[in-house]
Amino acid sequence: MAIPVIMPKQGQTVESCIIAKWHKKKGDQVKAGDILFTYETDKATFDEEAKEDGILLEIFFEEGDDVPVLTNVCVIGREGDDVSEFDPRTQIGREDKVTKTTVADKVGVEGEGEAYAANVAANVAADAAIEAAADTAADAAKQQGIGTGGETGFIRSDTGDGKIGISPRARNLAEKAGIDYRYAKPTGPHGRIIERDIISLMEKGPVFTFAAKDESLKSETKIVEEGSGIGGRITTGDLGRVQSESQVAAHASYSPGVVPGEAEFTEVKLTNIRKVIAKAMHHSLSSTAQLTLNTTFDATEILEYRKKLKENKEKLGLRNITINDIVLFAVSRTLPGHKPLNAHFLDDRMLLFNVVHLGVAVDTERGLMVPTIFYANHKSLNEISAEVKELAEECQKGTINPDLLKGGTFTVTNLGMLDIESFTPVLNPPQTGILGVNNIVQRVKEVNGQYVYYPAMGLSLTFDHRAVDGAPAARFLKDLKTNLENFSILLAK
Amino acid sequence: MVYDLIVIGGGPAGYLGAERAGQAGLNTLLIEKRALGGVCLNEGCIPSKTLLYSAKMYDNARYSEKYGVVSENVKFNHDKVIERKNKVVRTLVAGIKAQLKKSNVTILEGTGEIAGRSSEGYEVRINNESFIGKRLLIATGSMPILPSIPGVKEGMEKGFVLTNREILDIKEVPGSLVIVGGGVIGLEMASYFNSAGSKVTIIEMLDHIAGNNEREISDILMKTYEKKGIVFKLSSKVVEVKEGMVLYEYNRERASVEADKILMSIGRKPVVDGYGLERIGVEIENGRIKVDERGRTNVPGVYAAGDVNGYSMLAHTAYREAEVCINNILGKKDVMRYNAIPYVIYTNPEVAGVGETEETARQKGIEVEVSKISMRYSGRYLAENEGGDGICKILIDKKYRRLVGLHMIGNYSSEIIYGTAAMIEMEMRVDDIKEIVFPHPTVSEIIREGIFYL
């Protein structure tokens, strides 16, 4: 009896995942526990293991395919088992379903205010992404005169994040017909290519010669604007021309030390995560009014405190509490007194949070991730410390639940361990503030007529001037500084 | 009178261009000074094919015994052959005239000369009348190159030196015929007159015949010719012609060969003088009108097609070039591609090919894999060609495994080759061609056979 393997649902808000890599081929013998494939959401990477022993009878999606969650991805079974019933490509109604979790779905499931807020936040983020994609498609459509029969050059479908959105059905048809779907004009929701676009591509072209078709599918050739072959077909010569036009190498000046013929760069395809980061960062900087305030505080007390904790770790049954944990704790306790910085700015209104969901920037091999410590203001230093380590580890492994990568109300990012004295952190919209934590430098201050050295730790607060003015932001920093310099008092509060 | 298009020259490029333009609704004027159909119809492709077919019939009859047919007293009537040739040409020329009329093309006989620009386009004068063309299509064709060898000019006047024009109307089969130049025209005429009974000698400057064709194939052709009694003088240069004799130099030694008639067929050159091209500044480069891939000259609205652009000098190339010009005039983007133009030598056996040869591929830096196969793999070839030793050569480029050239020697090649041209145009790969069903038993199956060796 063949068993289908489905695309797991990672978190409440994930609708589809991209297959990043197949570790097994069709026909391979697999054992329970073997990794079948690696898949990505827009923020994390996961491995899917086989649950059974058997033969990988069929693979329905290729690397790079965007597969809706709960869809059959492959089938494991015995030699000769029929797999056709599991083929999602033959099931009607799989075409481009974008279902969004609505606010109504969630309210009542969780506690009132903050659940609502977190949800809105999640939806806002999702909306923004979808709209951006739709906008791009709409622009493209406008340029192309879609629907008006306006025939200009060929178009490349692109959903705006550099990734081409295509439904599995459309992709399958394109593969079957052996055509380069990048030339299709997307008419599906959010600028995705759907089956009818492929059909129209087959009917109206551009058409390739046999060899060019293969070449175009095989390598990521640049899009050819106009074919010069028979009947306007795109030929291998056209593909070659586009490639060579994009290379200046032939006439580039030669300088000593350069080995001729040696590639001057390697082209690296962006991972999904990189694309998401790129888009998010650009969106952040281009859509808000960011500025950064820098200050330092005397870290003597927290360093002392940390030393004590370290010495009595086992005795008190505490985690390895770091300076960063201490800063997080202080931020979680300072923010409630500065609501505009613990907020979401939504253009015409603001959500001022009564709780602190603290985003913590984590550097991973795959790229930057920001998991959230929900209700940080209600958690003890030890709890925060434990949770951060757990979240960071999951991010490193790529097993983090995507739902934990959103919903923050304020973010802390720490580059202190990399010897940064001050920087300008980039906001995580719609949040209104992000705190950069820097390294410790020895500074001098006057105490009773004597110059004494003290450890000065830097703080860089970026805030959205649309939401908060300079003085209130500075006041938050000042309060935070006071809390950190008098940490024992804060703990007593 | 203002025309949308004036076409100068009524050969394949001119008449077809005019026809297509007329069909598309352009008010078109076609000017031809001699006979509609140009060299191709009147002094080239068509008459020579008529002659060659008669020669083939004669040979089939004479050598039918190996096929179990005994024929006696087989006679060859050259007059009848020429008569029939004239009838074929007349029929076709009449057909073209009718086509042009049907396409609403105005035809004028005479020499059209460009007088200059006018506010509405270009002025063309013919028989002291003036016409304005908003656009021009220059299709003045080509003419035989007559080398400045002592005796040639006098020989032309006296009538013992001939070009393709005169030889196709020759009253009697000459006892001995010397052909200067072993290209397509020379080889076809050699084939006819050899069958008709002349003693034929071909003098060629290069060390091989049939120009740039696939060497192996021209070698086979030469051997076949030699078996029939045609004599080749390769790497030889004609230095003088006299009545009844041709003097040539081989290896710095002079030699002579007797000749009742001498055919000059060393090549052709575009006709660019005498039509006033210079008055509007049409750019001439190396004696040909310079055009781009859409058939446009450097002068806006002035196009050129056919032999006059010096690219390929074949009637079928001219047809397509004319269509490209007209399409661009009509605002349809169309470009001329020269990578899949077939060639045919209508000798017996026929030679045909398209695309790269091993030599040209090497020059262009295309790495090729070659499959060579005897035509005897084809059942039909074997049945119909007793003792035939034809071959078919297939060239694919290693990078894409697509077909880039195919050359064959054997009858029916001429009718098979266009399919190969289509495959090259479509950049079909070996695996694609393997899926094509060829009729059985045919000579064309040799392609399928050869492809499976790659």
Output the keywords.
heterodimer, A: 493 residues, six-stranded mixed beta sheet, 13 helices, 18 strands, 20% strand, B: 454 residues, alpha/beta, seven-stranded mixed beta sheet, five-stranded parallel beta sheet, 14 helices, 24 strands, 33% helix
Question: How would you portray this structure in words?
Answer:
The complex is a heterodimer of chains A (493) and B (454). Chain A is an alpha+beta fold and 493 residues long. Chain A contains 13 helices and 18 strands. Chain A has helices at 103-106, 112-144, 168-177, 195-204, 210-218, 236-245, 272-287, 300-311, 313-316, 323-334, 381-397, 470-485, 487-492, and strands at residues 3-6, 16-22, 29-30, 35-40, 45-49, 54-59, 66-68, 72-77, 290-298, 343-345, 350-352, 358-360, 362-363, 368-369, 372-373, 410-414, 433-447, 450-464. In chain A, a hairpin with a 2-residue loop joins strand 17 and strand 18. In chain A, helix 3 (168-177) packs parallel to helix 4 and helix 10 packs across helix 11 (381-397). Chain A is elongated, with a radius of gyration of 27 Å. Chain B is an alpha/beta fold and 454 residues long. Helices cover 33% and strands 27% of the residues of chain B. The interface between A and B is medium-sized, with 14 and 13 residues.
How much of the sequence lies in strands of chain B comes to 25-35%
Oligomer: heterodimer
Query: Total helix count of chain B?
Result: 14
Q: In percent, how helical is the residue content of chain A?
A: 25-40%
Cα radius of gyration of chain B in angstroms: 23 Å
Which structural class fits the helix and strand makeup of chain B? Answer: alpha/beta
The N- to C-terminal Cα distance of chain A equals 63 Å
Average residue-wise pLDDT of chain A: 79
Uncertain runs of chain B are: none
Give the fraction of residues assigned to helices of chain B. 25-40%
| Strand percent estimate of chain A | 15-25%
Q: Which two chains have the most extensive interface, and how many residues on each? A: A-B, 14 and 13 residues
Please give the largest β-sheet of chain B. Answer: 7 strands, mixed
Shape of chain B: globular
Strand order of the largest sheet of chain A: 9-18-17-16-12-15
The number of helical elements of chain A comes to 13
